[in-house]
Amino acid sequence: MRIVISSILLGVLVSARVSGASGVFMLQGTRSVPDDAERAYAAAMTRTMARRLEAVSIPCRILDEAVVIRDGMPDGTVALLPYNPYPPAELTARLAVFVRRGGRLVVFYASDERLADLMGVRVGRYQRAETAGRWSAIRFQADAIPGVPGRVSQESGNIRAVQPVKGRGRVVGEWEDATGKATGDPAWVRTDAGFWMTHVLLEDGDSLAKQQMMLALLGHLDPVLFPAATRGVFDRVSGVGQYDRFESAVAAIKTRARQMARPGEVMRLLGAAETIRQTQQAHLAAGRYPEFLMGLPDYRHSMKSAYAMTEPPRDDMIRGVWDHPATGLFPGDWARTATELSRQGIRDVFVNVLWPWQAHYKQEQVPESETVRRYGDQLKAALSACREQGVRVHAWKVCWTVEGADPAWRQRLEREGRLQRSDTGQLLPWLCPSHPANRSHEKDAIRDLVRRYPVDGVHLDYIRYRDSRHCYCDGCRSRYEAARGVRIVRWPADVRKGAARVDYDRWRCEQITRLVRDVRAICRAANPAIRVSAAVYGKYPQCVDSVAQDWAAWLRTGLVDFVCPMNYTADPAVFEQYVRDQLKLAGAADRIMPGIGVTAKESRLDAIQVIDQVASLRRLGARGFVLFDLNRVLSDEVLPYLRMGATADP
User: Which terminus of the chain has a smaller tally of CB atoms within 10 A, N or C?
Assistant: First the structure.
């Protein structure tokens, strides 16, 4: 039975409990975390773990810690604590009752001594990785837990070390560094009360191995979970992409393969998948669930590879990735990142190097970031490395927002009237686009960048207002009145919903477009070959009225060379409709490079979904795409399959 986790609202049953199945619970950190930021992180960790359990067909109920403190733990067999670092004494007492009743816990990255005593471990000191790659993977002992992968990749920047209490448990998984060398630091400890991991389980790649690991661990604690979960996994992975059954998937792949010049390798992979599938069925029938788990990677790889190889390559104008941290895949080693990108068929990298309040390179107008102090000038390193590999570098410029800026500078901006105000007067830590000093600040930083660095492109992001409720500051009022030669009596009512609303929305668009026009002029003066682009909202023209982003006008008037609509969705029909509507716009031909949300908040896509979206946009006439964003999930789980077909050399 497939259980779909549709929500993680606190205290709500998010997946129905199967009759006769064991009870698995997850505690969302609300009382064990110190502040709102930590509560948000705990909620994110809970969502991530919920998706993993859904993927392996394990029904789970999310519990608010406050409810557990009040009512106690329900009857069940396993409770997960995905991020609950400092549980109060009354919560630990409730968990102790759960354990005495026979329940078991799976704890991630906790620091509480009482919880450690309950679990049979001793908590050590907090450790931080001073250099990247100190804790890069988990190596499980061969005899540790039946069905766990031998190795699970995860790049952890810190851990809270623990050791098992003598007689109560053992270390079953140890951290390895980036070279594959054992560090001696425990990653997983098994005790008589459950399992303890020394960090949280990140969403940074090796997703299938992490799913397999969680199913093996939970099945070890409660073997009753195995039959339904493994059958659910088998049903889920039998097909590929839109073909959810093995037979229909094979038929579709064979049809696609007939269009290939040499389909032999595809047929070989399908034959291998059939053989593995028969073995998997035998394991399930005999109740050999760990053996079934160990066969999953080869089966998945065979089916995905066969499908990927049948997608024909094309010579895209833009084939890019967004790099949000601006440090590449391997912080401090852009040469390695550039080599990897080139090997995987990527031709453009959009490196997030410039914000209004910091730069990840040597900047004369904006303070240098901690990234520069730690890893050096990232723009210089990216340009040097990528040029050698034939990868174009676009300097990604985030506009207006100063949410992460130094508080003292933000306070100065507030005193100078340079921050945005909502229609109700609430302050927003974004620069007001109509303020002359703010426009100069943004332009001077870009002018300095293109004067000193030979970038291939300048890529504008956040080139908009946050929403329709901004900006209505006093400065906007005076500047609008002066520009239009009018006096607004009821501010902001008359321009928000009154007679002047349409004209004021047009004026807001003019403020955003003015910066785009100025950036185009700056780049053209520095080097006419620099390509100006923008990450934009996909829904047009709705974004004109809401965030004053009239990107279709930028295309028509030549202010940008191309735009990247952020079409982040897992729904193939919605994605196709976005692209179709965008390509219909005047001036859009060859200048729409859809953004695909591989690991976005709005969508998380596997390799097959990405291949299908690339095929869709190509079929509609788009000449390129950009993937969000550069991380281990993208590089390890998506790009290799794209390279088998969609991004192979023509």
Answer: C
